[in-house]
Amino acid sequence: MFENKGLVIESPGTLKMVNIPLRELETDEVLVRVRYVALCGSDIKLYLGSYVALHKYPIVIGHEWVGMVQQVGSGVNTSWSIGDVVTGDCSIFCDCCSYCTTNKNHCITIEKKGITQDGGCSQYSIVKAKHIYKCPSLHDVKALALVEPLAVAVQAIINRITTKELKRVKRALIIGSGGIGVMTMFSLLELQIPDITIVDIQSEKLSLVSSFGYANVHTAVVDLAGDTSQLGAGFDLIVEAAGSGVALRKAVELANPCGTIVCVGHQKNVELDFGMVMKKSLSIITSIGSAGGFEQAIKIIEKNHENISKMVTRIVSIDTAEQYFKNELKSSATDLKVLIDLN
Fold first, then answer.
1. For 207-264, how does the pLDDT look when each residue is reduced to its tens digit (9 = 90+)?
2. Dihedral pair phi/psi, residue 16, rounded to 5°
3. Cα(112)–Cα(166) distance, rounded to whole angstroms?
4. C-beta atoms surrounding 265 within 10 Å
5. How buried is residue 76: exposed, middle or buried, by Cβ count under 10 Å (0-12/13-18/19+)?
6. Which of 143, 214, 278, 303 is deepest in the core (most CB within 10 A)?
7. CA–CA gap between residue 262 and residue 247 (Å, rounded)
8. Residue 282 pairs with which residues in a beta bridge?
9. How many whole angstroms separate alpha carbon 144 and alpha carbon 66?
């Protein structure tokens, strides 16, 4: 039907561009012409062979993507039009089990695009209609490739913390200025948090955050293992987005009494002063996955797309992606978000 070049990790360290045959659409499916795929830490770990959760090889990578509707199955709601800009779920949920009624990211039959089932890094991708979301027709759609990581932040903060608790937040701290850390900043801006500080040990990424020009957002280069007195008084809400035990311990130390800590960084075993957690009456919320956050994330990107587009610090064509993974991956560690252009 179409030539369909895609990127497949065949095994750790081996990524190839291949032609992926397309089948006929089922009645509840949509054919999407994919425009951009954003690389995530999980894509890199799958390539390096260091991904520890459930996964498979070979795998078409990519779960952060934006594209346009190319064809619609006969049973799909007629509100979809050819050319509509869309993005879609990473977590493929059944929508009918007991966990789906509470948090679709914990569906009993959960599959993950680009991790346990083929992802979106091909020029054309077939997706169930219930797993795609309509996006605004922005002049530059690059920012919309980042809906999925922003949906992770929305799900962790806006969807998981009560409105009452969010209203009492005057000072918020984000530990880590990687992709998810910066996306939590945009979620906090949406909530009109008066004072937001984002810290990292790398100054390059913080410089980009400073360039956004938000008056209530402050940045600081901080080594959490050292002196943090420059951060001043405590915080009502702390987002741990670094995946570091040191960061989580520091969050407990810096949190105000009755404060909330949100963990979106992937933690392993960690030693924690739980006595301090108790004495401060802290709430620790953990979250994983983006399902449930897409509609709000799309609205936030529509409002802030110029700054969110700045998060894209490198674009790689599909024809040069194999070369990028082999030779440039390590040298791009300071990039905030890397896109693969599938056009």
1. 999 999 999 999 999 999 899 999 988 999 999 999 889 999 999 999 999 999 999 9
2. -130, 150
3. 30
4. 20
5. buried
6. 143
7. 12
8. none
9. 6
- Count CB neighbours of 129 within 10 A: 20
**Which residues fall within 8 angstroms of residue 275, CB to CB, at 6 or more apart?**
none
DSSP summary character for residue 4: -
- String of DSSP letters for 120-137: S-BSEEEEEGGGEEE---
What structural domains and CATH numbers belong to the chain? Answer: 5-149+290-341 (3.90.180.10), 161-286 (3.40.50.720)
Answer whether 0.90 is exceeded by the pTM: yes
Spatial contact of 1 and 22, defined as CB atoms under 8 Å apart: yes
Distance CA 293, CA 89 (A): 10
Neighbours of 134 (CB within 10 A): 15
Which residue has tokens 């936030």?
300
Handedness of CA 127, 129, 133, 139 (dihedral sign): positive
Rounded to an integer, what distance in angstroms lies between the CA atom of residue 221 and that of residue 154? 25
231 close to 207: Cβ distance less than 8 angstroms? no
Task: Read off the pLDDT of residues 159-209 as tens digits, 9 standing for 90 and up.
Answer: 999 999 999 999 999 999 999 999 999 999 999 999 999 999 989 889 999
Distance CA 236, CA 61 (A): 38
Helices (H), 220-341: 245-254, 274-279, 294-309, 321-323
Please tell me the predicted confidence (pLDDT) of residue 343.
86
Token pair 């089948």 in the structure block, residue: 23
Determine the distance from the C-alpha atom of residue 127 to the mean position of all C-alpha atoms in its chain, rounded to a whole number: 19
Structure-token pair, residue 199: 């810290």
Radius of gyration of the chain from its Cα atoms, rounded to whole angstroms: 20
Angle between helices 179-190 and 147-156 (to 10 degrees): 60
The CA distance from 271 to 269, in Å, is: 7
Beta bridge partners of 16: 8
Location of structure tokens 């994919």: 34
